[in-house]
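hey all, quick one before standup. I had two proteins in the batch that finished overnight and I want to keep them in one place so we stop losing track of which output belongs to which input. First protein below, input sequence then structure tokens straight from the run.
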Amino acid sequence: MKRAAVCIFSTLLILATGHEVLESCTIGVAAGDETRRPLLWKIRDCEDAETRVTYADSGHGFVHVWDTTHGPSRARMGINTRGFAIVNADVAARTELNGTFMFDALATCATVDGFQAFVDGYGVAQEDLHGNFAVIDSSGAAAMFEIRSNPLHVLRTDVDSFAVRTNFYLSLHPEPPGTLDPDWIRYLRSTALVGGWWDEDVLDARRLVREHARDFAYSSGNAVPVPRPGRTPNRPYGYVFTGNSICGHTSTSAVVIEGVLPGEPPARTTMWTALGQPAAAITVPYWPVPGTPSSTADGLRAAADAIRGRLFDVASCSDTTGYDPCARYLDSYRLRNDALSGVWDHAFPVEDSILVATEAFLAGRPDTAALRVFERETAGRALTRLEAIAAVVETIRVHADFTANHTMTCVSCPEDTVHFRNRSLHNPTSWLWSFGDGDTSPEYDAEHAYSETGIFVVTLEIADSLTGFATTARETITVTSWVGVDDGEPGTAMRGPRFLGASPSPFAGEAAIRYALPRGTAGRLDIYDVGGRLVRTLACPAHDAGEGEAIWDGRDASSRPVSSGVYYARLTAKGRSATGRLVLLR
């Protein structure tokens, strides 16, 4: 295999004023030779667009991916019957001309050199054409073009190894940005992945389909595991931020175009295509053959869109939990989990079989009619599996789980508490802890100090307001020594605040909340709703007798009446807390 050094360039994201938001695409190209097919790839990002694939009987004839936002006359990636293929990443703005330009190129060009001539004669000096364009042809040639207009500027880089681009021009800014932006992060991540595979002689269509197009990464460039056993602060457990990832929340399709070897028919250039969000899709092959793709393609995209809605879980993550912007966070446990109920658990075996079967099929040198039949059968298999996956994902419910540090050994350390961490899956919208000693808490993560030693059964009850499903996790906690604040009175059994009840219960107007504190200690009484949101805070002054009473009038901090429902009163003093339940009926 031919080797070449690969230079990694650094750049700034270039923005143009007065244009629409960039489509955050990631593209790349790898050259071919006598033993290795050229490769071209793109992860397409276009928010709120339905992606489709069509054969266009124009010029050479070609199959291309387009979206309903821009229409079928604007190609976003494609291959023609001469084995010429093109993808792009817009720069500076989403431009309508880029899609028309690629549509015309697919109808006109047969080679990389022919594309150069096409660009020179296109007459776009005063047009709004801005982008990185990667191309391959049936000879194994590969090139990356940087094209800018006003005035027309074309920079061609012939590739004898590989090249990666996102939404910026490398030539304009050779220095790295002062702060990392998403396009820069995706560029570095993609270059690192592809560069590693190239150096190991293992860069192929399968890795680009399976690993590159579905890659999630932290801003540091390190891979995010799937599932992710952890939690970003203030986010549900197991959710992954995709705003910086190659596979992002706005990704609507992915293609890997696999060229031909010398002597193979150019029309056997294969466009591996995932219609819909790549993490939710199954990749199938298309060829530039009249009569394809079949109508199954629209079904593949629709099924992937339905699965995407459950992966990103936008509806259940809107106002109830205050996560913003939740749409960028993906539930990794719906992709893969120990119960083998995730999307990838069911999708990847079928995708693997399609990849293997296609390789064997193409080795038999099929004619045009056979390509049509194989495409339809393969797409049908993928659609059947995706529709089954969509049904399975709909049945995945919230799952309660938590961890705790079980044994306390410090007698009078105010900072020493039992820490409970919520590890519940699939974004529950409400939760309630019961600590086994009569105290409860509505907080997402909880801390609790036990007033006596013993063995306690702790429960965490969670619910999903969208489905009405609720479930509970239980764990036994062993407390081996006193935990709490010594109130200074030898022999007293009270070592922290206590909730003594509320009356009347239920209440309609006011509730008298009775409590007990270590003598001479002031406290705070916080009222929470079932979603864990703070509604009102009441003062609890110190009393010589230790016991006191606070009145809640059923109003929030702005003196507005709150709605009927269950509320929780959490009493806090000297770092300790106790929680009680109230029911308001208007």
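OK second protein, same deal, sequence then tokens:
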Amino acid sequence: MFCKKCGTNINEGMGFCPNCGEPVGGADSGNVTNDNSVTNMENGSDTVNTANGTNGEGEQNPVIPPVSALWNMYPQNGQAAGGQTANTQAANGQAAGGQTGNMQSANVQSGMTQYPAAPQYGTQQNGFTKGMTMEGGGKKFFADHKIFLIVAAAVIVVLVLVLCNLRVAANFLRRTFSSPESYYHYVEKKTVEDASADFAEMYGRYFLDNLDTSGKSVSAQIDVKMGEGGQDLLDLADLAGVDMSWLESASFTMNSSVSKEAISLGLKAALNGVNIISGNAVVDLEEEALYLQLPEVNKRYMGVEFDTSDLGDMEEMWELYETLEKVCPDQKEAQQLVNRYFTTAIECVDDVTKKKSVLEAGDIEQKCTVLTVTLDEETAQKVMIAVLTQMKDDKDIEKIIKNVMAEETLVEELYLDDMSPEEAYEEFQDWVDEGLEYLEDYDDYSDDKIKMKVYVNNKGEIVGRTVTAEDTTIKMLMPEKGKKFGYELSYKDSYYDESMAVTGNGTRSGDKIDGEFALEYNDISMADISVKDFNTKDARKGIINGKMTWKLSEDIEDYTGYVSGMSMIQKITVTTDFKSDKNSSKCNIGVSMKDKNLVDIMISYSKEKGYKGADPGSDAVMIDDEDDLIKWGKDFNLNGLTDALKEANVPSEVTDSLEMFEDMDIETIMDMMYYYY
């Protein structure tokens, strides 16, 4: 027997299709007929008729359907048991999902066993779950919609890949469907955009920020610490009769601060971790006085008259800074100007060829699109004409010129003719017109050409560039393969047969690179360089972060020949570790030889806004004569300096010579000076 709904073979005695759960007897019947009943096992009241769902006493005996039948029998999505809708059952006296009161369903009355409705959780199901509960179950749903689901999955995968590789897709379209000139303009403009942003940041940090005359402070420090190998070298000084074994470390600190009213400079020296001596100097620009202090000797400041003209006209300088800050374009405007004019120049390039090629550097090869650009005098002429034409109509240029000419200070400092801003701009326009007229009439071209090859990866990024002009070739190459990259930065002059290069390989992780490189001169390796966590993004903005190790190459003797002590120098390794941000920088330098640390040097630098200089206070003594010097010398005492040197383990030869002055007052010391000089 076969199911009339799905065609599955049904064994004798089964009341439901094992595949789809359809009651045996037809797709349209909801009842099990007595044709499917089995014979009674025994006579009597204990006889059980399992097929028709009744026992020997004529009472209804539940028939257990296959699991797949539950999809049809339980109400799903508003459908009542047996496949009828709730409304249909309600019309027959039964609510959806079960019986109401004492009323029997049409199926019960017709002899079909009823099952309790599946519990309902929340509202009608939607989406994927709704499909799973449709007639026939999840298996039938997937079978009926297989093609649709495969197509939908493929579309989703394609969309995800496109979104994740949007730059690759955009570059593919540009590269495939645009001319070589248009494609070159496209990739070069993106490079210029990034470069102009980096330039603008350096312009703002190193130029605009330094025009702020509200006050700024800078501090710098150098710490030197001798290692085991360094101590061994110092011990060699004993051979010359000099004891340097006591020297373990030294530190020097400088603090400077500038405002419109004063300039301050502070110095401090320490030996073996002990502060030995410090000094402060303050120039009062308003009072035209110089104040000096040695805190370890005398806490009082000594003041003398100071001609500030030796520093130049400070008021004029501050005024000039303020004026420049006012008229110079801000960081955003500078970025737009640089980007605008480089873009204009790029658009004039029209001699470009395009082909596929392989870029090689180090041990890495990368498939690229190579754009060969030819630049001749005619192209240079087009560039200058385009730039001048744009400058003539550039409102930002007009604004800068008029702002400069409105400032009398700048006019004087730059030795400009005295004229109104409008007159100055008109003169600028006339100058541009003269330049354009000359360029447009120029036709005396030479045969000199510059060849440039630009290597572009599949994302539209420039990963290599070579520039050749007559006998000189410059290469900047960085092919990549996954996280690995090769590198070459080289210069070669075939006329003088001279070359320099940095070559090597490394790995990239985000903006940081690790790698091993060689510094070469005329194809001879001079030094080996190891790089760790070097931040390329920061470097483009003028900020150095990362670790580098330097060591002379073994091949250097091929260039230098025999040099006394070269073998020892070759064993020296120098390590630099930079940690920097916009306002500070710290560099740790380690020097070692044969795995022995010679010396560690730490150099740090930081800057901040505001005047942080020392204040001489009202206790300062102005020195006009000897009496003023004696007045200042009342607090003079060398004991603190001597004690500090002893604490630092400085040899007694030094401290003993100072002890003889400890109990002397300033007058006695002055008399001794007169006697000897």
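Flagging for whoever picks this up: The two ends are 135 Å apart (CA to CA). The longest strand covers residues 596-609.
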